């Protein structure tokens, strides 16, 4: 072996060496190291190398083709070549040469090595190196690494903006800076939107639970309130949705006794009225419903006023969807619980 030639680790090449003819390609690195290799193996693993090998090159000497791989430490090139032969790469090599191997696997189109390097590099991210890694990820078109960098920058922006990498980026790459700031803004907006949706969803779930409680209070009765034709059971145990049911029972008792009533401007009575109306909108019983005013509201709705209100329609749809969703959840989890009667006043 000539001086400066690197030996391909026997472990990686052993099973192949017997089957392969003598090397016909010489890979030359920037340090001047020379790595003998086989054009057939390189071309099979990398379409870029295959293309290079297809074209004649004036640096070729006799039957031996020369491939120059500059700008990368020769050890990293050796690891890369070893991967082309064995499809394997030791963790310690990925850890040590991850940056170079990512660049090589991108440049020579070796996707499985590229994926491994991108994943390994995400484990090495720190406040100090994240900006450089982001630039590398973008240069090498590595979206997984790029996203992880962005997320880390968003999460720890205070720390990252103090680093040299960030300051350098501000001076030399204002477009990337802008893109990062936009990403941060979108993340914050997305978080706000998700929070809002979750809050709304939990309100619909509470309403759907209240609808279940209303039916069960009006048909079989619960701890303190029940239909007049059912004998109250002494020491009746609270139902499974008692935090909601109890609030509803208090509201029903108030509704039965209040002197001000809905038209007198009582807010609690108004809320009870709306719950009864909501029940009627989702109730599919025709004549045998025990919930007070259900039939009257249905008749009124047929005449048109509330039914035509798009906001009311949407509310009914959402509560029905939440009802279906909670039925699904309950069939999976026996104690899926949505509590908080108090929040129901929001709608
Ligand atoms: Zn109950
Ligand atoms: Zn009242
Ligand atoms: Zn009904």
From TrEMBL:
<dbReference type="InterPro" id="IPR000210">
    <property type="entry name" value="BTB/POZ_dom"/>
</dbReference>
<keyword id="KW-0863">Zinc-finger</keyword>
<dbReference type="GO" id="GO:0005516">
    <property type="term" value="F:calmodulin binding"/>
</dbReference>
<dbReference type="GO" id="GO:0008270">
    <property type="term" value="F:zinc ion binding"/>
</dbReference>
<keyword id="KW-0479">Metal-binding</keyword>
<dbReference type="InterPro" id="IPR000197">
    <property type="entry name" value="Znf_TAZ"/>
</dbReference>
<dbReference type="GO" id="GO:0005634">
    <property type="term" value="C:nucleus"/>
</dbReference>
<keyword id="KW-0862">Zinc</keyword>
<comment type="pathway">
    <text>Protein modification; protein ubiquitination.</text>
</comment>
<dbReference type="GO" id="GO:0009725">
    <property type="term" value="P:response to hormone"/>
</dbReference>
<dbReference type="InterPro" id="IPR044513">
    <property type="entry name" value="BT1/2/3/4/5"/>
</dbReference>
<dbReference type="GO" id="GO:0006355">
    <property type="term" value="P:regulation of DNA-templated transcription"/>
</dbReference>
<dbReference type="InterPro" id="IPR035898">
    <property type="entry name" value="TAZ_dom_sf"/>
</dbReference>
<dbReference type="Pfam" id="PF00651">
    <property type="entry name" value="BTB"/>
</dbReference>
<protein>
    <recommendedName>
        <fullName>BTB domain-containing protein</fullName>
    </recommendedName>
</protein>
<dbReference type="InterPro" id="IPR011333">
    <property type="entry name" value="SKP1/BTB/POZ_sf"/>
</dbReference>
<dbReference type="GO" id="GO:0042542">
    <property type="term" value="P:response to hydrogen peroxide"/>
</dbReference>
<dbReference type="Pfam" id="PF02135">
    <property type="entry name" value="zf-TAZ"/>
</dbReference>
<keyword id="KW-0833">Ubl conjugation pathway</keyword>
<dbReference type="GO" id="GO:0009751">
    <property type="term" value="P:response to salicylic acid"/>
</dbReference>
<feature type="domain" description="BTB">
    <location>
        <begin position="23"/>
        <end position="93"/>
    </location>
</feature>
């Amino acid at each position: 072996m000539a001086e400066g030639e690197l030996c391909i680790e026997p472990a990686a090449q052993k099973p192949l060496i017997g089957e392969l003819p003598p090397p016909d390609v010489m890979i030359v690195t920037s340090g001047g190291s020379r790595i003998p290799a086989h054009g057939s193996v390189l071309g099979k693993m990398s379409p870029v190398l295959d293309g290079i090998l297809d074209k004649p090159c004036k640096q070729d000497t006799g039957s031996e083709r020369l491939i120059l791989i500059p700008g990368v430490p020769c050890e990293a090139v050796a690891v890369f070549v070893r991967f082309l032969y064995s499809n394997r790469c030791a963790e310690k090599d990925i850890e040590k040469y991850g940056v170079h191997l990512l660049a090589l696997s991108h440049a020579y189109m070796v996707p499985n090595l590229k994926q491994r390097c991108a994943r390994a590099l995400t484990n090495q991210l720190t406040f100090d190196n994240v900006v450089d890694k982001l630039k590398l990820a973008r240069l090498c078109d590595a979206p997984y690494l790029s996203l992880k960098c962005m997320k880390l920058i968003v999460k720890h922006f205070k720390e990252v903006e103090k680093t040299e990498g960030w300051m350098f980026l501000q001076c030399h790459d204002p477009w990337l800076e802008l893109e990062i700031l936009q990403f941060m803004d979108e993340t914050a907006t997305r978080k706000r939107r998700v929070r809002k949706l979750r809050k709304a969803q939990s309100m619909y779930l509470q309403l759907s639970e209240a609808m279940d409680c209303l039916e069960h209070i009006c048909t079989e009765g619960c701890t303190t309130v029940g239909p007049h034709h059912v004998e109250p059971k002494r020491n009746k145990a609270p139902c499974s949705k008692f935090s909601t049911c109890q609030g509803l029972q208090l509201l029903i008792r108030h509704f039965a006794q209040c002197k001000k009533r809905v038209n007198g401007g009582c807010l609690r009575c108004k809320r009870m009225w709306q719950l009864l109306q909501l029940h009627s909108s989702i109730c599919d019983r025709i004549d045998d419903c025990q919930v007070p005013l259900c039939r009257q509201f249905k008749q009124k709705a047929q005449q048109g006023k509330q039914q035509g209100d798009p906001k009311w329609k949407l509310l009914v749809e959402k509560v029905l969807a939440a009802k279906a969703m909670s039925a699904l959840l309950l069939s999976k989890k026996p104690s899926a619980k949505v509590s908080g009667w108090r929040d129901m006043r929001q709608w």
